[in-house]
């Protein structure tokens, strides 16, 4: 027989009785199971104390009390009571499963894994832990609801902790836990996490701001009472039954507004507002009409989140009215069901099971959102962390597809973000877009209510530049994945050619190397396949000479030495082979290549001034390359044309370039101080040196042209 658990002190006993009284919504069998869980936790933590000196059991009891406030099921409450037993007391998952059921054991195990990973200051560790949290959320939302309750109680009782640790935990709460609470629709908890963290990080600022808020509230007491009375009378006169109550802006949100918009406290006008709760949706719109006839509305400040709910399920009508003495008053109008979801979000699924279907629908939406987050995972935790943090921020714009479907995207999202939100293939092949039936660039930021149509092209593909302006984690992740895959494929092809060339120069025909030698090479390199070894060579992570000698050291190969070996390139190999922007080589130019670690091979012209020093000091880094003939490919280069300053001369030069079968990509002009001559800087497209010669001949024949030259590495 097990000894009885240590009796808690009186105040703890009182807290336990209050906790038991709050379980009246559960059947007696569940209450008995919860009592057993409390007894088990009290015994397991009997000799432990918190840093404040309180018995440790007060913490799991407080967390379970928060879970009970959301009217969650018995398994969740048991897990909240037991959440530290596996981590701190040596209780096993098997033991918990036998005593309280498999589901409770799974929840406690998920929470223990989260507890093990108190976020370190190192970004990679923090990111990896964050990923684990999202995976736990995707498996069972209750894990994160209990974790949020745990964090809420912890930051409220941190006075005994070291100041630097307090600030670190508070910052992490602001950065991770508060946005998760908001995304799950737990607005009340979100505000409390923010305000408590704010007080811990900036205690003096919080105190000054709280005092200013109390004084402002005292000064406006009569005015606010008068406005509330006017609203109540107007709604009653319109035949509407409504609850009207004041709503204060949280300390942290006032601080953020002052900081972001560089405002003083007196300039933050929407500190106070009112919430109107009515019976049904039609009454919301009737109440809105009544209030707009009572006080004048501020144009552009009306938002209908009932017709278009926020992604976390939030629904309300928002309007700003000009009250007495020109005081702006923000009013939110919603039904009781909407109010429940607005306060408790996903948790309202357990709280108000009889009330409405929207909370259950919200749970399904939340699971879909979590799954979409996990889809965007890549091997790099830090990238994943940054991507998802963007998706946790609440500001959203609502965009329409051509078929009228509404899509929510973060503030600042671009056409590319929208394309990837529609489908990965649409994003990968988007080439242009129409916004409200007008053509627009892909980097255009979208605004609320925009109608967006994506134009795709089979040959289009993601551009690395997109990463500089996309906003959503999904788009960023898909672009990175495409670029990595493409780069690896191209780098593997280049690496294979470089290794083949190296082997031939050593007098070995690659086909004569037995399969066992290749297998040994792959194993020794720590890669999974030969393609990965080739990709490393193409990206400059491995030298082809070292890899070739490693192969040859294992076997005696047949020697056949061909003469005059150089690497042949087309110039369209993509990211694996890049044409240097300084000298812009074209077919026909004598060229030389250099492998740059991590970015593949860069091709320069032999006489490029940029590489002169490197070629003489580090000759081993340079590889002989030559052009392989190919039809149809065009290459960009720059030419300078000096002309007499006469009317229509630019048109004449452009016509000559066009007649020679070349495209003009860009043109810029520089006039000399006396304005006698003008220098035209063209970027044109040509097929090879012969084509360039034809273009230059056509320009040189014009009488107005005094000088023409090709630009190389900044020199003409």
Structure write-up:
Helix 13 (221-237) packs across helix 15 and helix 20 crosses helix 22 (473-505). The chain is of the alpha+beta class and 716 residues long. Strands 1, 2, 3, 4, 5 and 6 form a six-stranded mixed β-sheet that branches. The chain has a five-stranded mixed β-sheet with strand order 12-16-14-15-13, with helices on one face. The chain has a four-stranded antiparallel β-sheet with strand order 18-19-17-20. It has six domains: 10-200, Hypothetical protein af1432; 207-343, Beta Polymerase, domain 2 (2-Layer Sandwich); 395-471, Beta-grasp domain (Ubiquitin-like (UB roll)), CATH 3.10.20.30; 473-555, no CATH class; 566-631, no CATH class; 635-710, ACT domain (Alpha-Beta Plaits, 2-Layer Sandwich), CATH 3.30.70. The termini are far apart. The protein is 49% helix and 16% strand. A hairpin with a 5-residue loop joins strand 7 (396-400) and strand 8.
């Amino acid at each position: 027989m097990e000894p009885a658990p240590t009796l808690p002190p009186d105040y703890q006993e009182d807290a336990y009785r209050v906790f038991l009284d709050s379980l009246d919504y559960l059947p007696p069998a569940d209450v008995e199971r919860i009592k057993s869980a409390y007894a088990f936790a009290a015994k397991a933590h009997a000799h432990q104390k918190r840093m404040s000196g309180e018995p440790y059991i007060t913490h799991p009891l407080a967390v379970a009390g928060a879970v009970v406030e959301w009217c969650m099921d018995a398994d969740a409450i048991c897990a909240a009571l037991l959440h530290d037993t596996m981590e701190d007391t040596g209780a096993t998952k098997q033991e918990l499963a036998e005593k309280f059921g498999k589901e409770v054991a799974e929840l406690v195990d998920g929470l223990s894994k989260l507890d093990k990973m108190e976020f370190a200051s190192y970004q990679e560790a923090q990111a990896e832990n964050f990923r684990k949290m999202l995976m736990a959320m995707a498996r069972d939302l209750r894990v994160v609801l209990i974790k949020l309750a745990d964090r809420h109680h912890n930051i409220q009782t941190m006075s005994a902790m070291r100041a630097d640790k307090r600030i670190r935990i508070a910052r992490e709460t602001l950065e991770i836990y508060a946005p998760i609470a908001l995304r799950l629709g737990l607005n009340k908890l979100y505000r409390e996490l923010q305000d408590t963290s704010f007080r811990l990080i900036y205690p003096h600022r919080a105190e000054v701001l709280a005092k200013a808020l109390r004084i402002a509230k005292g000064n406006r007491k009569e005015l606010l009472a008068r406005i509330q009375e006017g609203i109540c009378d107007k709604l009653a006169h319109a035949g509407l039954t409504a609850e009207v109550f004041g709503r204060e802006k949280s300390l942290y949100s006032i601080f953020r507004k002052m900081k972001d918009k560089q405002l003083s406290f007196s300039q933050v006008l929407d500190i106070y507002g009112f919430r109107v709760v009515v019976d049904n949706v039609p009454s919301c719109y009737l109440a809105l009409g009544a209030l707009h006839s009572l006080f004048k509305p501020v144009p552009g400040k009306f938002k209908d989140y009932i017709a278009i709910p926020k992604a976390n399920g939030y629904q309300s009508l928002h309007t700003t009215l000009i009250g007495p003495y020109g005081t702006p008053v923000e009013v939110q109008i919603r039904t009781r069901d909407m109010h429940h979801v607005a306060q408790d979000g996903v948790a309202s699924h357990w709280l108000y099971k009889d009330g409405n279907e929207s909370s259950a629908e919200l749970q399904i939406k939340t699971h879909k959102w979590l799954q979409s987050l996990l889809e965007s995972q890549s091997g790099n935790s830090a990238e994943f962390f940054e991507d998802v943090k963007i998706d946790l921020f609440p500001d959203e714009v609502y965009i329409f597809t051509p078929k009228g479907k509404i899509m929510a995207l973060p503030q600042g999202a671009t056409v590319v973000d929208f394309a990837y939100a529609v489908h990965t293939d649409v994003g990968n092949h988007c080439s242009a877009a129409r916004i409200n039936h007008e053509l627009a660039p892909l980097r255009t930021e979208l605004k609320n209510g925009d109608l967006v149509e994506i134009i795709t092209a089979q040959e289009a593909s993601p551009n690395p530049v997109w990463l500089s302006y996309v906003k959503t984690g999904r788009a960023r992740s898909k672009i990175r994945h495409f670029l990595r895959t493409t780069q690896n494929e191209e780098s593997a092809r280049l690496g294979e050619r470089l290794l083949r060339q190296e082997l031939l120069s050593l007098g070995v025909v690659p086909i004569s190397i037995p399969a066992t030698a290749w297998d040994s090479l792959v194993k020794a390199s720590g890669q999974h396949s030969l393609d990965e070894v080739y990709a490393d060579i193409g990206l400059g992570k491995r030298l082809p000479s070292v890899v070739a000698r490693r192969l040859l050291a294992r076997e005696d190969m047949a020697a056949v030495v061909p003469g005059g070996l150089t690497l042949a390139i087309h110039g369209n190999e993509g990211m694996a082979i890049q044409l240097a922007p300084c000298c812009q080589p074209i077919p026909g130019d004598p060229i030389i290549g250099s492998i740059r670690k991590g970015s593949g091979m860069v091709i320069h012209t032999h006489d490029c001034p940029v590489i002169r020093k490197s070629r003489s000091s580090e000759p081993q880094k340079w590889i002989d390359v030559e052009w392989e003939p190919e039809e149809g490919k065009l290459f960009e280069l720059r030419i300078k044309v000096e002309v007499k300053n006469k009317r229509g001369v630019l048109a004449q030069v452009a016509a000559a370039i066009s007649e020679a079968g070349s495209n003009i990509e860009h043109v810029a002009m520089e006039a000399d101080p006396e304005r006698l001559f003008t220098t035209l800087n063209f970027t044109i497209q040509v097929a090879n040196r012969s084509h360039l010669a034809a273009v230059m001949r056509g320009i040189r024949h014009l009488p107005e042209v005094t000088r023409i030259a090709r630009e190389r590495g900044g020199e003409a």
